[in-house]
Fold these 3 entries.
Entry 1:
Amino acid sequence: MAKQDQFLDVLLHLMRDLRRSYDRQAQAVGLTLSRARALTTLARNEGATQAELAALLDIEPPTLKRQVDALVADGFVERRPLEGDARKSALFLTERGRDSAIVDFTQRLRRELLADIPAGDLQAAGTVLDRLAQNVSRLDRA
């Protein structure tokens, strides 16, 4: 097997394992992976509109709307009218969202996944992953 094939296989396996681990933790607090991602991204960007949050998550606004509706219904997030534009709302974590174990889990997961990896290696890996993302985008446009 060529090294390129091995690299992609390892990367795909890592993504699958990471998603499984994340899903188990997210379900323990009543969230899906998608909702957990939205919640943790909002935790770093409180006051964002749904359109801004969708852009940060790189997903379509209608997809995010369903996730936010569920997060609001479950008491993790609240919408507040945006000053100056009554048609838009800003998103904020509620006490439940702020105390959510998933936010702590995500922060801990990021720390633990990157533990003992030298900064230079992380930078090189980031460069490779950025190039892979560019290549995927180019393939999607072809």
Entry 2:
Amino acid sequence: MKAIISISGRQFHVGGGDILEVFRLKQKKGEQFTINEIVALEKDGSLITDRDILKDCCVIAEVIDEKKGKKIRVFKKKKKTGYKRKRGHRDSLSLIKILKIQVPDAKS
């Protein structure tokens, strides 16, 4: 069973046991949480997009680590004026592991 979930403003195609890098979450390392924003669900070869069915489904995940992303450097320069600007940025990331996808059997 696979699902398309929406978390941290991005969408991911996930299954049980997958590990994702998402923007920093409020949950701490080792905490389990549920993701209720499911866009679509693939079950037995059929795609379910009905919102009435999807509102009862959830994905259980666990934060396994927190880290920083790749450093991004931005350098701006204008010729003949001496204008130079160097900036850097690193995203704070959370590594999450998808434990399981819960689907009620009565409606599926």
Entry 3:
Amino acid sequence: MSNNSSEEKAQGATSFIIGVTRGIIRERNARRKTMFVLIVVAVILLASGSTFLQSVLNSPEHAAWFILFWLICAWLTLTAMLLAIFDLLVVKLEARRTQRSLREKLATEKTNHE
């Protein structure tokens, strides 16, 4: 009975993550806010890892923490970069669609006036 409950929780969490991801990808403001938050968190981690966490992260006993910490920083930065590239592609696509629409509108107005 608990196995079925844990499967339902996993499916619920998965569907929630997929829904949030779809929302971030589809909504321009959500995507840009997410990029901003990711960069801010990565910069805060970078600053803290280079200053007051440096003694903890550089000790040989905490090599796993060092690797995990910098992997998280890299993951956050890479995610923000990929979202930025995706946002750039979406903006270019929207500009092409708008340009095409304006060309068609001008063409139809030109033929109507002749």
